[in-house]
Amino acid sequence: MHSYGPCLINELPKWDKNVETSSETIVNNETISLPGGTLTIKQLRAILNVLPVEITIIDENNINRFFDEDQNKVFARPKMALNRDVFSCHPKRVMKMVTKLIDDFKSGKRDSMHMISTVDGVQVLTNYYALRDENGEYLGTMEAVIHIDGII
Q1: How are strands ordered across the β-sheet holding 37-40?
Q2: What is the DSSP string of the chain?
Q3: How many CA atoms lie within 13 Å of 33's alpha carbon, on the beta-carbon side?
Q4: Facing residues of 66 across strands?
Q5: Which long-range contacts does 134-138 make (Cβ < 8 Å, 24+ apart)?
Q6: Which residues of 52-71 are buried (b: 16+ CB within 10 A; e: fewer)?
Q7: What are phi and psi of 127, to 5 degrees?
Q8: Long-range contacts for 58-61 (Cβ within 8 Å, ≥24 apart)?
C-alpha cells in the first residue's frame, strides 16, 4: 500500500479527537438530533418534500400518520385520511394484498416489497418497507412511490 504525502500544502491537517455522538433521538422546539446528526425541523420538512418520492407512513396500529406534501401524487392521499385506519382508504381489489403485506411485516416474515405498475399512463415503482427499531420491533410501514418514466 502506498502512502501519499501532502499535495499543494505543507502538512496534512489534523482532525480533532473523534467526538462521541449520542445514539439517542432528542427533539426540542427547533431541532431533532439523531445518531447521524442534527437537523432543524424546517430542514427535515424541506428534505421530506424535496425527495423525488411520494411517502406515506402508517404506524404499528395501522393508522395513517404522515404523507409528504407533494400536490401531484400518483395515488391521491387526502388529508382527511390522516389519523385514520389505513384499510379505510384502499379499494377492495387491493385490500387482501395490503392486509397480507402488513401482517407479514408485523410477523417479521418480510421487510419489504416492490412493485412496478402503470397508473394513468405513468410508470411507477411502489416500495413498501417495514419500519423497525434497533431491536427489530415493528414500528409501522412506509410506502414510497417513485415515478420511473424516463429513468429506465
Answers
A1: 26-27, 31-34, 37-40
A2: ------SSSSS---PPPPPPPPSS-EE-SSEEEETTEEEEHHHHHHHHHHSSSEEEEEETTSBEEEE---SS-SS---GGGTTSBGGGGS-HHHHHHHHHHHHHHHHTS-SEEEEEEEETTEEEEEEEEEEE-TT--EEEEEEEEEE-TTT-
A3: 7
A4: 57
A5: 136/108, 138/60, 138/105, 138/106, 138/108
A6: ebbbbbbbeebebeebbebe
A7: -115, 135
A8: 58/86, 58/102, 58/140, 58/141, 58/143, 59/139, 59/140, 60/106, 60/138, 60/139, 60/140
**C-alpha–C-alpha distance, residues 52 and 146, integer Å:** 7
Nearest one of 86, 124, 91 to 105, comparing CA atoms: 86
For 123, the grid coordinates are 410508470
pLDDT in tens, 127-148: 999 999 999 999 999 999 998 9
pLDDT in tens, 58-86: 999 999 999 988 767 777 777 888 999 99
